[in-house]
Each structure stands twice: as C-alpha cells, then as structure tokens.
Amino acid sequence: MSDxxxxxxxxxxxxxxxxxxxxxxxxxxxxxxxxxxxxYVYVAFPxxxxxxxxxxxxxxxxxxxxxxxxxxxxxxxxxxxxxxxPDALALGAVNTVVTxxxxxxxxxxxxxxxxxxxxxxxxxxxxxRSVLVLGSGGAARAVVLALGRAGSRVVVAxxxxxxxxxxxxxxxxxxxxxxxxxxxxxxxxxxxxxxxxLGMHGETPPFDPAALAGRHAVVDLLYHPARTPLLLExxxxxxxxxANGLGMLVHQAALAFRFMTGRDAPLDAMRAAVSTGRDxxxxxx
Length: 285
What we know:
By secondary structure, this protein is of the alpha/beta class. The chain folds into 2 domains: 11-109 and 247-273, Leucine Dehydrogenase, chain A, domain 1 (Rossmann fold, 3-Layer(aba) Sandwich); 112-244, NAD(P)-binding Rossmann-like Domain (Rossmann fold, 3-Layer(aba) Sandwich). It is built from 11 helices and 12 strands. Helix 1 crosses helix 10 (246-261), helix 1 crosses helix 11 (267-273) and helix 5 packs across helix 6.
C-alpha cells in the first residue's frame, strides 16, 4: 500500500487461509506497492476450511487483483480454477489465483520456482547435483517438482515411505527413503533441504549431524527461528548454509506480485519487510 489514501479506485488483493492472521504476505505485498507507488492494498482474509473454492470464485465478482492461497485451501482453490499452470496441475494445488482478461480464473504455484530462485541467488545451481528433500507435504512436493525440472538428482525422505514415494513421482528418477536411512542418504548427496516443521520449536535434525561434510550445502525452509538447530549444526561443521525460508518466501511472493500487478516486484523492499521472519507459520510454502 502506498502513502496515498485508499479510494474507490484502489485495487484489492489478499491471502486466504485458516489461520491467516499472522501471515507475512500483507507486509510483503504492501511494502512492494509502497515502493512502486501503486494504488493497491493487500489484506488477509480468514476463510474457514472447506470454503477456499468459494473465496476463489469471488475474485472476478469482487474485482480483486488476485488472491494468494495458503493452507488448508490450496487443493480446493486449484479445483475452482478454469486453468492451471503446469506446476499447479502437477501438484494439484495453487498458491496464486488471478482473473485473466477473458474472465476465467488462472491458478499457479510459485513455491517451486521461488525456491529455485532463492537457491541460485545464494550461489547454488541445483542442476546435475544430488539433493535430499526431507518431508513429503505441500512445500516438499513443490520443491521436489522444481528440482526435477532443474535437472537435480532427487532423494525424498519422509517418516512414511509411501508418502515419500508419492512425492518422488514428481521428479524424474527420484528415489524414496524413510527417515531410518537418513544418515546414509545425507552422506551420499550434495544438498540437504529441510521441508518439514522440525526445528520450528527447537527440534534437532532427524539425522546425525556428523554426516554433514564441507562439500554439503544445507537449506531450511523454516525462517522462524532464522537459525534452526539444523542450520546451527551445519555452521558448526563448516558446511555451506545456503538459506533459510525467507528467500523462498520473498521470491514466491514476487512471482505472485507480477501475476497480480503486471509489474516486476521490488525485491529489496520485500526483503526488508520480512527481515525479522515473524510470520506465525514460520515456514515458506
């Protein structure tokens, strides 16, 4: 939101979720609007579970610039769209919905591309590198899909190996493992990505940190706390800490911003708006 007063011409965008009151998205997008002097405002809409599709279908009715979508509505929102991007179609989930000029609803998932941009921004090219993704939920699935598209050799590990297998289908040739195999898996890959909530409340990594070596790079999609036990363990062993989840958070929001406004996002303004990482969820995606 810019410093100009809101008027009847102000465009409205927002995020739907349950809960959503502590989302970082309003801070990100309103900071971007202010930096570019756009007559937009971004708000959080608490939408109860099961009503995500209704909220999405209201976008053209209300003339909204678009909606971002967080849990638990990503799948319902995808089903309410008239067309989906290839990523959204593969995932069966969206995090961004806009109205196209013909009035139809278009849904995309910007999480995976946001992850890749954050990774590359920190100097890691995932192509032809082996990557272990911990987790099989929505964020993990978006990351697995993106890594497969980037040419990574992907290993997915989860507490339930059947869930790991399902997520592994999103990347060509990806392998599935259970958490019981993690020490061996870590030792065999180049990059480790934590896409689970482990560490949000001080939990230690689900593998022996001694398996980490100087050749590794470590990413944690959590951003609150900014330095999780996994990242602290990695730093203590001289391992490259690529990023916490703030990079992915900012880049996926920047991609959504362009969908909604047609303008490139001011990344520095968006980073500054969430530099403390205070979103209540604490995890990108």
